[in-house]
């Protein structure tokens, strides 16, 4: 492949990693764990992998070489910066234990396991992708590993290749599938361990022992760079309000982190909207008041950050979407037969009185988007809902009303943006390059320790990398029961923005000032070479959570 000058320079970068992972490694077990919620039901569903202890790795005494291990690796779900370094860390960890160990990558995600599509990952291949963005080494996919026939079909190729350990690199749903697979393989004595790695740029896969999901740091820095560029343009032309939608359907971590990095005039936090039972109309009024107050001081410009999943957090809209999801799950075939021209009225006739009235009141475009095909989990595809356009239009209408009443005399022109794919395959920051490599190496240590149903964990990452703590936690520890596609299923509980947490409190303390003063920050591009405080800094979120 043709490489840029930056890629050539980055290829020489050696990721920093915890001292505990260098040389001989010893696994130290802690206390037994339990599920995040619905403990008895999770225990019933995972009898062979529930309640296992968390593991921490420490420097061990020199030991006899481990027997060679054949392992497999899968990249699952949406891309996130640093995935290649997870694979590199896994590869290096396996080879450090025994140079005869081999690593196989399954092509285009979990589907590659089921369809027996794979390639052996050799040193030459791994070296081509160190410290690079994307998942193009082996590709990714969204096939869900849920059914016994899939597990059995996958086991055929694992046995054929002599693979005794499988690492699934993915988000909450992918790691839920990893837990189900680990449980099944252990229950039948398959002799294959399954290990997960926490990936999602949304930042909603974390707990006390999983500080952050990889890719979040890089994606937020990429988005913040572009937001900063827009804000500088905004402050230069002084004639536009920019409405910027950001990734994050289930949580507002990206919007909050980008706000902390760039100081926008308005940032909507979905979790706060839900907690305060705000209506769409109240959100519009909040934005419009900031616009009007700035206009009164001659500032007819500004920036508004909007999380992708906002619509689902507005309580009235959430109730409507829940009923729509349930109805469409039960009547999928019938709905597809309805002519598109009458689907709007058809749905109104099928919904409860309150939800029918709300659905009828929505702009036709938004109503149509709410009825689009669901994602594989039965949820509305919120990325297809143009929330930024909806809010901009509604704020414009509100300001027009206020102008007629003499309450507003400014000018209001808008630009709309959605930042999503731009951040998913960026070259990883030093933080993500180091963190991901350590996660992969920790996964190899979990394999060597004979663990299954675990997620690799690297903590204390606001400290220098040498002081990071590596280990693993049982995936069942993160699980509870939730309704998916009309059925209750065991899933990893998503981590939402905590309104009493330090990151949100830091934003809340400053947002009124940022609304009125043009205190924009222009972070600029990710820095890879230079002082550690510039190149290796973790997210503002993580620093605030750890009191740094």
Automatic annotation (TrEMBL):
GO molecular function: 6-phosphofructokinase activity; ATP binding; diphosphate-fructose-6-phosphate 1-phosphotransferase activity; metal ion binding
Protein name: Pyrophosphate--fructose 6-phosphate 1-phosphotransferase
UniProt pathway: Carbohydrate degradation; glycolysis; D-glyceraldehyde 3-phosphate and glycerone phosphate from D-glucose: step 3/4
GO BP terms in the entry: fructose 6-phosphate metabolic process; response to glucose
Any Pfam family the entry gives: PFK
Binding site for Mg(2+): 172
Reported function: Catalyzes the phosphorylation of D-fructose 6-phosphate, the first committing step of glycolysis. Uses inorganic phosphate (PPi) as phosphoryl donor instead of ATP like common ATP-dependent phosphofructokinases (ATP-PFKs), which renders the reaction reversible, and can thus function both in glycolysis and gluconeogenesis. Consistently, PPi-PFK can replace the enzymes of both the forward (ATP-PFK) and reverse (fructose-bisphosphatase (FBPase)) reactions.
Stated regulation of activity: Non-allosteric.
Gene that specifies this protein: pfp
Entry's EC annotation: 2.7.1.90
Domain Phosphofructokinase: from-to ranges: 71-337
Positions contributing to diphosphate binding: 78
Cofactor: Mg(2+)
């Amino acid at each position: 492949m043709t490489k840029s000058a930056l890629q050539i320079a980055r290829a020489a970068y050696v990721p920093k990693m915890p001292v505990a992972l260098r040389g001989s490694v010893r696994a130290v077990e802690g206390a037994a764990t339990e599920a995040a919620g619905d403990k008895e039901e999770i225990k019933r569903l995972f009898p062979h992998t529930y309640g296992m202890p968390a593991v921490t790795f420490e420097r061990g005494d020199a030991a006899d070489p481990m027997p060679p291990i054949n392992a497999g690796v899968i990249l699952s779900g949406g891309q996130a910066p640093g995935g290649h370094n997870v694979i590199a860390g896994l590869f290096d960890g396996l080879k450090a234990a025994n140079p005869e160990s081999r690593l196989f990558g399954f092509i285009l995600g979990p589907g590659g396991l089921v369809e027996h599509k794979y390639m052996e990952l050799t040193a030459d291949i791994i070296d081509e992708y160190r410290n690079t963005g994307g998942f193009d080494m082996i590709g990714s996919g969204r096939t869900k590993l849920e059914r016994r026939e899939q597990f059995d079909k996958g086991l055929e190729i694992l046995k054929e290749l002599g693979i005794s350990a499988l690492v699934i690199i993915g988000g909450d749903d992918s790691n839920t599938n990893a837990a189900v697979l680990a449980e099944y393989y252990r229950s039948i004595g398959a002799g294959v361990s399954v290990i997960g790695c926490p990936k999602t740029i949304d930042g909603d896969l974390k707990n006390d022992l999983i500080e952050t999901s990889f890719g979040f740091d890089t994606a937020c820095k990429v988005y913040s760079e572009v937001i900063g560029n827009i804000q500088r343009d905004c402050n230069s032309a002084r004639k536009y309000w920019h409405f910027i939608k950001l990734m994050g359907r289930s949580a507002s971590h990206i919007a909050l982190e980008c706000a902390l990095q760039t100081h926008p005039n308005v940032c909507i936090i979905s979790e706060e909207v839900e907690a305060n039972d705000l209506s769409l109309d109240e959100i519009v009024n909040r934005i419009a008041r900031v616009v009007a107050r700035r206009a009164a001081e001659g500032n007819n410009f500004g920036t508004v950050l909007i999380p992708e999943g906002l619509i689902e957090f507005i309580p009235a809209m959430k109730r409507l979407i829940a009923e729509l999801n349930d109805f469409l799950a039960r009547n999928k075939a019938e709905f597809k037969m309805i002519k598109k021209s009458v689907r709007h009225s058809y749905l109104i006739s099928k919904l409860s009185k309150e939800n029918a009235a709300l659905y009828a009141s929505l702009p036709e475009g938004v109503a149509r988007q709410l009825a689009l095909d669901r994602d594989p989990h039965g949820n509305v595809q919120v990325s297809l809902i143009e929330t930024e356009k909806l809010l901009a239009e509604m704020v414009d209408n509100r300001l027009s009303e206020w102008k007629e009443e003499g309450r507003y005399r400014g000018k209001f022109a808008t630009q709309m943006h959605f930042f999503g794919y731009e951040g998913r395959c960026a070259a990883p920051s030093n933080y993500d390059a180091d963190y991901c490599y350590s996660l992969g190496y920790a996964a190899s240590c979990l394999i060597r320790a004979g663990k299954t149903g675990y997620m690799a964990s690297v903590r204390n990452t606001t400290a220098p990398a040498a002081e990071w703590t590596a280990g693993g936690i049982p995936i069942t520890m993160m699980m509870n029961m939730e309704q998916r596609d009309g059925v209750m299923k065991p899933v990893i509980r998503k981590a939402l923005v905590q309104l009493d947490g330090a990151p949100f409190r830091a934003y809340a303390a400053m947002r009124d000032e940022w609304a009125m003063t043009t205190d924009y920050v222009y972070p600029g591009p990710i820095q890879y070479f230079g002082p550690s405080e510039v190149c290796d800094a973790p997210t503002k979120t993580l620093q605030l959570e750890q009191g740094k």
